[in-house]
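Example protein was shown:

_____
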Amino acid sequence: KEWFDEFLRWNPSEYGGIDELIVFQREVWLPDLFVENTAQDYKELGNDAMLIAVSHKGRIFWEPGIVTETSCAVNIGRYPFDSQSCDIRYLTWMHTNRTLTVDPEFDSIDLAATLPNGEWDIARTEALPYSYPSTYKQGTSHTGVKFFVHLRRKRTFYILNTIIPVVMLSLLNVLVFILPADCGERMALAVTVLLSFTVYLGIISDVMPKTSESLSLLGKYLLYIPL
Protein backbone atom coordinates (compact mmCIF):
# COMPACT_ATOMS: atom_id res chain seq x y z
CA LYS A 1 0.00 0.00 0.00
CA GLU A 2 1.27 3.46 -0.79
CA TRP A 3 0.01 7.03 -0.78
CA PHE A 4 1.35 10.58 -0.54
CA ASP A 5 1.28 12.70 2.60
CA GLU A 6 1.94 16.38 1.92
CA PHE A 7 2.88 16.96 5.57
CA LEU A 8 5.83 14.55 5.32
CA ARG A 9 7.87 16.29 2.64
CA TRP A 10 11.35 17.74 3.06
CA ASN A 11 14.34 18.90 1.09
CA PRO A 12 17.15 16.30 1.34
CA SER A 13 19.82 18.97 0.84
CA GLU A 14 18.74 20.60 4.10
CA TYR A 15 19.02 17.35 6.08
CA GLY A 16 22.37 15.91 5.07
CA GLY A 17 21.12 14.25 1.88
CA ILE A 18 18.61 12.02 3.70
CA ASP A 19 15.90 11.20 1.18
CA GLU A 20 14.10 8.39 2.99
CA LEU A 21 13.20 7.46 6.56
CA ILE A 22 12.17 4.16 8.14
CA VAL A 23 9.93 4.79 11.15
CA PHE A 24 7.44 2.87 13.24
CA GLN A 25 3.98 2.88 11.74
CA ARG A 26 2.49 4.36 14.90
CA GLU A 27 4.37 7.59 14.20
CA VAL A 28 2.53 8.43 10.95
CA TRP A 29 -1.07 8.57 9.80
CA LEU A 30 -2.44 5.26 8.47
CA PRO A 31 -5.78 4.34 6.88
CA ASP A 32 -8.12 2.53 9.26
CA LEU A 33 -8.38 -0.74 7.33
CA PHE A 34 -9.69 -4.03 8.70
CA VAL A 35 -10.84 -7.40 7.39
CA GLU A 36 -14.62 -7.12 7.12
CA ASN A 37 -15.49 -10.82 6.82
CA THR A 38 -13.10 -11.99 9.52
CA ALA A 39 -14.01 -14.97 11.68
CA GLN A 40 -11.99 -13.49 14.55
CA ASP A 41 -12.02 -10.20 16.43
CA TYR A 42 -11.92 -7.03 14.34
CA LYS A 43 -8.50 -5.39 14.37
CA GLU A 44 -6.60 -2.97 12.17
CA LEU A 45 -3.81 -4.12 9.89
CA GLY A 46 -0.30 -4.25 11.25
CA ASN A 47 0.90 -3.39 14.76
CA ASP A 48 2.93 -0.67 16.43
CA ALA A 49 6.20 -2.63 16.06
CA MET A 50 6.01 -2.67 12.24
CA LEU A 51 8.03 -0.22 10.19
CA ILE A 52 7.01 2.07 7.37
CA ALA A 53 9.05 3.87 4.67
CA VAL A 54 8.68 7.62 4.07
CA SER A 55 10.38 9.32 1.11
CA HIS A 56 11.30 13.01 0.95
CA LYS A 57 8.48 13.55 -1.58
CA GLY A 58 5.90 12.42 0.98
CA ARG A 59 5.45 8.97 -0.51
CA ILE A 60 4.41 6.44 2.15
CA PHE A 61 5.11 2.77 1.53
CA TRP A 62 3.39 0.38 3.96
CA GLU A 63 3.44 -3.43 3.96
CA PRO A 64 1.37 -4.48 6.97
CA GLY A 65 1.10 -8.07 8.11
CA ILE A 66 -1.85 -9.84 9.66
CA VAL A 67 -2.88 -13.40 10.44
CA THR A 68 -6.64 -13.80 10.18
CA GLU A 69 -9.37 -16.31 9.44
CA THR A 70 -12.32 -15.53 7.19
CA SER A 71 -15.62 -17.26 6.55
CA CYS A 72 -16.32 -18.77 3.14
CA ALA A 73 -19.39 -20.50 1.72
CA VAL A 74 -18.54 -23.80 0.03
CA ASN A 75 -20.34 -25.96 -2.51
CA ILE A 76 -19.42 -29.64 -2.20
CA GLY A 77 -21.79 -30.91 -4.86
CA ARG A 78 -18.91 -32.23 -6.98
CA TYR A 79 -16.67 -33.34 -4.10
CA PRO A 80 -13.87 -34.45 -4.42
CA PHE A 81 -13.65 -32.86 -7.90
CA ASP A 82 -14.86 -29.50 -6.63
CA SER A 83 -13.54 -25.96 -6.92
CA GLN A 84 -14.22 -23.21 -4.41
CA SER A 85 -14.18 -19.43 -4.60
CA CYS A 86 -13.46 -17.48 -1.41
CA ASP A 87 -13.10 -13.76 -0.86
CA ILE A 88 -11.26 -11.56 1.63
CA ARG A 89 -12.74 -8.07 2.04
CA TYR A 90 -10.65 -5.16 3.32
CA LEU A 91 -12.67 -2.06 4.20
CA THR A 92 -12.21 1.28 5.91
CA TRP A 93 -13.77 1.48 9.37
CA MET A 94 -14.76 5.15 9.74
CA HIS A 95 -13.42 7.02 6.72
CA THR A 96 -15.89 7.35 3.85
CA ASN A 97 -15.25 8.06 0.18
CA ARG A 98 -15.46 11.80 0.97
CA THR A 99 -12.13 11.68 2.78
CA LEU A 100 -10.47 8.39 1.75
CA THR A 101 -10.65 6.14 -1.29
CA VAL A 102 -9.02 2.72 -1.32
CA ASP A 103 -8.38 1.02 -4.68
CA PRO A 104 -6.42 -2.11 -5.66
CA GLU A 105 -3.06 -1.43 -7.27
CA PHE A 106 -3.15 -4.66 -9.29
CA ASP A 107 -5.97 -6.85 -10.57
CA SER A 108 -4.64 -10.04 -8.95
CA ILE A 109 -2.79 -11.26 -5.86
CA ASP A 110 0.99 -11.73 -5.91
CA LEU A 111 1.52 -15.39 -4.96
CA ALA A 112 5.32 -15.26 -4.82
CA ALA A 113 5.37 -15.69 -1.04
CA THR A 114 2.78 -18.48 -0.84
CA LEU A 115 3.68 -22.04 0.14
CA PRO A 116 2.32 -25.13 -1.64
CA ASN A 117 -0.63 -26.87 0.01
CA GLY A 118 -1.23 -30.61 -0.02
CA GLU A 119 -5.00 -30.32 -0.47
CA TRP A 120 -5.63 -27.22 -2.61
CA ASP A 121 -4.22 -25.49 -5.68
CA ILE A 122 -4.79 -21.79 -6.29
CA ALA A 123 -6.28 -21.67 -9.78
CA ARG A 124 -6.44 -17.88 -10.06
CA THR A 125 -6.91 -14.72 -8.01
CA GLU A 126 -8.66 -11.39 -8.46
CA ALA A 127 -8.49 -7.98 -6.78
CA LEU A 128 -11.51 -5.73 -7.26
CA PRO A 129 -12.69 -2.42 -5.77
CA TYR A 130 -15.22 -2.85 -2.98
CA SER A 131 -17.54 -0.46 -1.19
CA TYR A 132 -20.19 -0.59 1.51
CA PRO A 133 -22.82 2.08 2.23
CA SER A 134 -22.04 4.14 5.29
CA THR A 135 -24.40 3.72 8.24
CA TYR A 136 -23.67 7.12 9.79
CA LYS A 137 -23.20 9.38 6.74
CA GLN A 138 -26.03 8.99 4.28
CA GLY A 139 -25.01 9.14 0.64
CA THR A 140 -21.43 8.05 1.29
CA SER A 141 -19.74 4.67 1.39
CA HIS A 142 -16.72 2.98 2.90
CA THR A 143 -14.23 1.86 0.27
CA GLY A 144 -11.86 -1.07 0.18
CA VAL A 145 -10.64 -4.04 -1.82
CA LYS A 146 -12.16 -7.48 -2.31
CA PHE A 147 -9.68 -10.27 -3.03
CA PHE A 148 -11.02 -13.44 -4.66
CA VAL A 149 -9.10 -16.71 -4.35
CA HIS A 150 -10.28 -19.52 -6.62
CA LEU A 151 -9.23 -22.89 -5.24
CA ARG A 152 -9.16 -26.30 -6.91
CA ARG A 153 -9.00 -29.44 -4.79
CA LYS A 154 -6.13 -31.83 -5.47
CA ARG A 155 -7.76 -35.12 -6.44
CA THR A 156 -5.05 -37.81 -6.32
CA PHE A 157 -5.49 -38.66 -2.64
CA TYR A 158 -9.28 -38.91 -2.93
CA ILE A 159 -9.14 -41.00 -6.10
CA LEU A 160 -6.79 -43.54 -4.50
CA ASN A 161 -8.47 -43.68 -1.11
CA THR A 162 -12.14 -43.10 -1.93
CA ILE A 163 -13.13 -43.32 -5.60
CA ILE A 164 -11.27 -46.54 -6.50
CA PRO A 165 -12.45 -48.47 -3.38
CA VAL A 166 -16.05 -47.35 -3.99
CA VAL A 167 -15.86 -48.50 -7.62
CA MET A 168 -14.46 -51.88 -6.52
CA LEU A 169 -17.24 -52.26 -3.95
CA SER A 170 -19.81 -51.43 -6.62
CA LEU A 171 -18.43 -54.24 -8.79
CA LEU A 172 -18.59 -56.63 -5.85
CA ASN A 173 -22.18 -55.59 -5.29
CA VAL A 174 -23.03 -56.75 -8.83
CA LEU A 175 -21.45 -60.15 -8.12
CA VAL A 176 -24.18 -60.80 -5.56
CA PHE A 177 -26.66 -61.33 -8.42
CA ILE A 178 -24.27 -63.65 -10.24
CA LEU A 179 -24.00 -66.13 -7.36
CA PRO A 180 -26.61 -68.91 -7.28
CA ALA A 181 -29.66 -68.24 -5.11
CA ASP A 182 -28.98 -71.35 -3.00
CA CYS A 183 -25.36 -70.34 -2.37
CA GLY A 184 -24.76 -69.65 1.30
CA GLU A 185 -22.07 -67.08 0.57
CA ARG A 186 -24.48 -64.85 -1.33
CA MET A 187 -26.01 -63.31 1.77
CA ALA A 188 -22.61 -62.96 3.45
CA LEU A 189 -21.21 -61.09 0.44
CA ALA A 190 -24.23 -58.79 0.27
CA VAL A 191 -23.98 -57.91 3.98
CA THR A 192 -20.20 -57.36 3.72
CA VAL A 193 -20.58 -54.99 0.78
CA LEU A 194 -23.38 -53.11 2.57
CA LEU A 195 -21.24 -52.67 5.68
CA SER A 196 -18.31 -51.51 3.54
CA PHE A 197 -20.47 -48.84 1.91
CA THR A 198 -21.62 -47.73 5.36
CA VAL A 199 -18.01 -47.42 6.55
CA TYR A 200 -16.98 -45.35 3.53
CA LEU A 201 -20.03 -43.14 3.96
CA GLY A 202 -18.88 -42.39 7.52
CA ILE A 203 -15.32 -41.69 6.38
CA ILE A 204 -16.45 -39.32 3.64
CA SER A 205 -18.84 -37.55 6.01
CA ASP A 206 -15.92 -36.88 8.39
CA VAL A 207 -13.65 -35.30 5.79
CA MET A 208 -16.29 -33.29 3.92
CA PRO A 209 -17.15 -29.74 5.08
CA LYS A 210 -20.15 -29.72 7.40
CA THR A 211 -22.89 -27.98 5.42
CA SER A 212 -26.55 -28.61 4.61
CA GLU A 213 -26.68 -26.22 1.65
CA SER A 214 -25.25 -28.79 -0.76
CA LEU A 215 -24.74 -32.56 -0.74
CA SER A 216 -21.95 -34.33 -2.53
CA LEU A 217 -22.89 -36.62 -5.43
CA LEU A 218 -20.51 -39.17 -3.98
CA GLY A 219 -22.32 -39.03 -0.66
CA LYS A 220 -25.69 -39.46 -2.43
CA TYR A 221 -24.32 -42.45 -4.32
CA LEU A 222 -23.11 -44.15 -1.14
CA LEU A 223 -26.44 -43.39 0.52
CA TYR A 224 -28.64 -44.83 -2.26
CA ILE A 225 -26.49 -47.75 -3.46
CA PRO A 226 -27.56 -50.07 -0.60
CA LEU A 227 -31.19 -49.50 -1.64
